[in-house]
Specification:
The protein is mainly alpha-helical. It has one domain. The chain has one helix and no strands. It starts with a helix and ends with a helix. This is Gram-positive cocci surface proteins LPxTG domain-containing protein.
Length: 40
């Protein structure tokens, strides 16, 4: 039972960081894409 409680805790701590990093990467790519489109 103890193992089941520790696994979700670590997952919950890591998941938000991965989600935030993914959102930041998507925003950066979108901004770069818009800049290139505007320049062209």
């Amino acid at each position: 039972m103890s193992e089941d409680t520790t696994l979700p805790q670590t997952g919950n701590k890591k998941s938000p960081l991965l989600i935030v990093m993914g959102i930041i990467l998507v925003l950066l790519v979108a901004l770069l894409g818009y800049k290139f489109i505007i320049k062209k």
